[in-house]
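S1.2 Input.
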Amino acid sequence: SAPAPAPADAPAPAPAAAEPVTAEAAAAEAKSVRASIVSATERGEEHPDYKEESPSPTVQPKKNFHADVAAQAAKDALGGGDDSKLVEIFAHVNQEQRLQLIQTYSAKFSKDLVADAKAETEGEVQHVVAALLTPAAEYESQFLHHAVQALESKPTELGEFLAVHTKEKIAAIVEAHSKVYGGDLPAAIKLHCSGLALSVALAVLGGSRKSATKINLPAVAAQAKAVAEAPAGSLDDPEGPLAVVLQTLSPLQLRAFADEFAKAKGNTLIATIEKELSGVSQSLAKAFLECAQSPSAFYAKLLHNALSAHGSKDHQVQRIIVTRCERDLGAIKAAYEGLAGKPLAESIKGDTTGVYQALLLYLIGEQ
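S1.3 Output.
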């Protein structure tokens, strides 16, 4: 006979318990997410709304440069103890010409120009002169080393380093770091951070980030929507979509991603990161996004903060000026004036004196 019907007030059967997610299933899902985001970086096209900033160097190669003439001039200036002459010699040429000058000085006089210049200068002038005479990758490796050591107290610095450089430049800097400092760089980073920050830092240092200028906008928009709809608190997942986005997308693609995220979420990606992330992960993610939006505005903000600080942060001012003067310091100057309400030269004049001031003004193209 048919079973008796259940009483009308009987409780509904409990839903079946969800199957636990296995490690293998989670790994497969992460792999699928990564593949989907990587696909968003391919088969794209140039987009009129997403263009790289034009180069705007304030230091150009010196016309009619002759390394032997410059080497003799450097020797005379060093022998005469005239720092202002050194400023004219070192700041009026680009780095390639400075490296030629170092080689010619060594061949001509059997001396080390870097060591001689350090011996004849002091204080902030010495620091800038040493920076100018150091090959770019080696100088940047010094910043990378400091950024890792200071990761917990100054987390923005590693974010800046990873955000602004192409994977080719990062590879050269990491190689220089290995030669100068030795040691295990990934192990050093692991001592100071975890989660999304660690995942992104190790991947980008290993060359994961694209350098593409083409954008597959529909694919980027789909991934931005997926991240916008992700459960609250999931952004710090080291294998999650945001981690893969930061590890993979080029600056222009990341800018497009942030715009599409805002459309889907009704809030900016930076605001969401500020709400859901903290510590090193927040600082690193914000640096990536701010630099993607506008490298010149990003550096103008860093300069403004450094020059506005009590007892200005000379090392940061010097590093930005030395590393950007052959790239985009012209655009940074314009952004700085818009932010600070006065020219960068005026801020430098109000904070420095003498040969040090003249050297910085030469490098920013104002002397």
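S1.4 Remarks. The radius of gyration is 26 Å.
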